[in-house]
Every structure is written in C-alpha cells, then in structure tokens.
C-alpha cells in the first residue's frame, strides 16, 4: 500500500514538471522573461550598430529576443545566440576581472559562452556559465530602470528566475 502511494505521488510530481524545465533540456528558440520584471520585458539585444549589448525591452516579435539555444553538451552546457546577431555571435562573459558583465561576442570554444540552464521550480530556470561557475547567475540589475542584466551571486532572487517560452 505504501509503495503504491509513493508511486502515485511520483507520477503526479512528474506530470507537474513545468514545460520550461522540459524545454530547458532541448535545443530550440526561446523568448526569455524574468520573474522580477514580469512577462512584459524580454532579454534583448541593443540595436545600436555594434549590437553586442543586452537589455530588457518590451516583448515583441523582434529577432533580438529570439534566443537560439544549442543542445546541451555532455556536461550540460550550451551556447546562446539570437536571430538578430546570427550564428556567429554568442552570449559571453566579459573577462575583465570582475566577470559580471555580458556581451555578444564571436562564438568560440570559450567557457564564458557555455551556459547551463538549471530548473529552479515553478517553471523557472537559472542561467549560469562554466566560466563563473555555480556561484553566479544571470540577474537583473535592480536600479529602478530594471532593464540591464549582469552575473551576480546566486540566491533566492526573482531577478535570477527566468522563463523560457518556446517560439
């Protein structure tokens, strides 16, 4: 009887896994929104001619908000590109000693471009890089404007909880 109850609980638990957690294991194109800023702002590329900077912008049908995630490698890391910047540019950590700023840079075999998508519950995920390790997560800068992102110490912060919406 006890085993039956445990099995039933496991079935219910498995059925309640959010779609985003399942999708997090698949290659595809996603729109990224954040628990802190809500579903109206998406991770985007600043269209300034250089096209290397990121921000959070009003969600829309924009190629800078279409994030292409590769299938995870054997260690669970993947690259992240946008339709706007193309296949040759990847989301990367600026290696400046602080290692908390992000940019789009030429794709290569760099640990700052190797992203891990970690289920965080309630349909959210945390995004970390191989370069900065498990201690830093993609986060929204809480400065009143709330339109910039950085890598910050991981914690139970809504700015680090991302939703991946399959496009």
TrEMBL record:
Keywords: Signal
Annotated ranges, domain Ricin B lectin: 28-165
Pfam families: Ricin_B_lectin
Name listed for the protein in its UniProt record: Ricin-type beta-trefoil lectin domain protein
InterPro entries, sorted: Ricin_B-like_lectins, Ricin_B_lectin
Keyword Signal: yes
Signal peptide start-end: 1-24
